[in-house]
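User: Some background: our group keeps a shared notebook of sequences we're curious about, and every so often someone picks one and asks for a predicted structure to add to the entry. Today it's my turn. The entry only has the sequence so far, pasted here. Could you supply the structure so I can complete it?
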Amino acid sequence: MSSHEAQEPQNAPKQQPNPYGARVVPLRPAGPLRPTGKAAKEAGEAGEAREPLWRDVVGDVLRRERLAQERTLKDVADAARISMPYLSELERGRKEASSEVLAAAARALGLGLPDLLSLAQTRLAGLPRVRPARASYRSEVRLAA
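Assistant: Of course. Here's the predicted structure to add to the notebook entry:
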């Protein structure tokens, strides 16, 4: 194998061949959520684990549900009457969606808003807890006027 070819991980799922010879690479691993964007940068600088953001969890649930139904971004975005790039941003946890947009995306997937939020809450409850860092206070007392 040349140095330019990527090696498949040993535990990677086998991909179905497609008629165009392209290989499908999952965008998000099935493992625990990792912080993205600014949260990832802050966690990396501080060298500590961060709690996942709600938008990451909801986006993960939307993507998993869409993929479980074997539907495309375009199909779900059209059914929800939102743009395909916006739905993609939601799934990647890059945008905070309003309750109206979440309800539309849930309906497009055959779910109600309570179903979507319940799935997100269940996913969030199953993640390992991150203990907040303790603030180091000295024995000084400072009062603001």
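Suggested note for the entry: The first helix runs from residue 37 to 46. Residues 1-9, 25-30 have pLDDT under 50 and may be disordered.
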